[in-house]
Amino acid sequence: MLEIKDLYKTFNPGTINEKKALTGINLTLNDGDFVTVIGGNGAGKSTLLNMITGVYPCDSGTIKVDGEDITSLPEFKRAKYFGRVFQDPMTGTAADMQIEENLALAARRGKARTLRPGISHSERAKFKELLKKLDLGLDTRMTSKVGLLSGGQRQAVTLLMATMANPKLLLLDEHTAALDPQTAAKVLNLTTELVEEGNITTLMITHNMKDAIRLGNRLIMMNNGKIVFDIAGEEKKKLEVQDLLDLFAKVSDGEFANDRMMLS
């Protein structure tokens, strides 16, 4: 479903601020894979997601989605392939629009626009059923502005929007990091439910090593713009947090890039 070959990206090349963000990334995700991604600050995790979605152009390398080469496509033309949820709950939704209007925009991602009414009766009924799954009472507040929702509610709506159009690939960039533990657990459970229900190929960045081990069928670790560890199946299930800590200490020369990974 996703094939990345020899992907390189350097920011501010030839200047004092030069940063080699990705240095020869090779990654293949099969249909239905749920891959968790861990690594310290500056490892290249978010840059990888931004390269996949076309936020930045590639210096070299290729990116294919479901066999189609999208390397040279601009960001807006890639949108139909992806669903994405960001770390900041305020990103990914239109605050001044109603909940149902946000869902309608998500449902039309990658499709031609027409002059028909914005939301049909059948769509409104469908949105209501989808919102009921969240168990947050939002199915009775469909005309409320998204900006009035709490961070957890807004992130749950964003997750629903990202998955409702059956994307080729779901990209989750630390999407529970800004939430309190109870809300984060609920959003993660919802994530698992939606991914399994739709058999959606997923790439999820997280700093929580317990979540990285528990969720998905595969785990990769990044460091200095490279994938330094890739484990799946039964081997992944046998991992302990200490195993990842030891490995991370090894690849980072004994220095942790940030405390968030250690504390999680």
Provide structural commentary.
The strands form two sheets. The protein has a six-stranded mixed beta sheet with strand order 6-7-8-3-9-10, sandwiched between helices. It has a single domain, classed as Rossmann fold, CATH 3.40.50. The protein is built from ten helices and ten strands. The chain is α/β, with parallel strands linked by helices and 264 residues long.
Topology diagram in text:
Layout: E1 2-11, E2 19-29, E3 34-38, H1 45-53, E4 60-65, E5 68-69, H2 75-78, E6 82-85, H3 99-107, H4 121-134, H5 151-163, E7 169-173, H6 181-198, E8 202-205, H7 209-214, E9 218-223, E10 226-232, H8 233-237, H9 241-251, H10 259-263
Parallel strand pairs: 3-8, 3-9, 6-7, 7-8
Antiparallel strand pairs: 1-2, 1-4, 4-5, 9-10
Helix pairs in contact: 3-5, 5-6
**Can you identify the CATH superfamily?**
P-loop containing nucleotide triphosphate hydrolases
CATH class: Alpha Beta
C-alpha Rg (nearest Å): 19 Å
Largest sheet: 6 strands, mixed
Q: Would you tell me the structural class of the helices and strands? A: alpha/beta
Order of helices and strands: EEEHEEHEHHHEHEHEEHHH
Mean model confidence by pLDDT:
87
Strand sequence of the main sheet, in spatial order? Answer: 6-7-8-3-9-10
Helix content: 25-40%
User: How many H/I helices?
Assistant: 10
